[in-house]
Design brief:
CATH class of the largest domain: Alpha Beta
Order of helices and strands: HHHEHEEHE
Radius of gyration: 27 Å
Distance between the termini: 66 Å
Number of domains: 2
Strand content: 25-35%
Shape: elongated
Number of strands: 4
Strand order of the largest sheet: 2-3-1-4
Oligomer: single chain
Length: 158
């Protein structure tokens, strides 16, 4: 059997013709993800919602020096008394299982909570002070090393 070699321009033409035949007409730019179609798609996404920051705080409940873990009741009181007044518009709280390495190098596994608060980017400076107050008070109250923090930019719509 004899092989036929097709030049690159001819191969491109044949592929386009086959696609045109298969689709029954001209293919849209959106189907191929052209720059114009991608830009229009990104523009639509960018217009939805407003720029926010989503802050995630990670609260462990294990304590040092043989002290009992922070109970659910103690933690929920902290949420009600300290966190809610600073974020009255809303928050999300999830119970979790966490682990982390402490300053002595030990791995600690504990029941934990992930708190998520979202706020407009324009409020970031003021909210940072609230978040750092919450983190500091939690550590001071139960003699803990840290509360984890992660900030993520997001487009948010309610």
């Amino acid at each position: 059997m004899r092989s036929i070699r097709i030049s690159t321009p001819a191969a491109a033409f044949l592929a386009a013709a086959a696609l045109l035949f298969a689709l029954g007409g001209p293919a849209s730019e959106a189907a191929f993800g052209t720059h114009e179609a991608s830009a229009a798609s990104e523009q639509n996404v960018a217009e939805e919602g407003s720029p926010y920051i989503s802050t995630h705080l990670y609260f462990g409940t294990g304590r040092h020096n043989g002290n009992p873990p922070i109970t659910e009741e103690e933690f929920m009181k902290f949420v009600a008394d300290v966190i809610t007044p600073r974020f009255p518009s809303g928050l999300t709280l999830q119970e979790a299982r966490g682990q982390w390495r402490d300053k002595e190098g030990d791995i600690n596994r504990e029941r934990s909570y992930e708190l998520t608060v979202m706020y407009p980017v324009r409020e970031a400076h003021a909210r940072n002070a609230d978040i750092e107050y919450i983190r500091g008070l939690y550590c001071k109250t139960w003699e803990l090393e840290s509360v984890g923090r992660a900030d993520v930019r997001a487009q948010v719509d309610f």
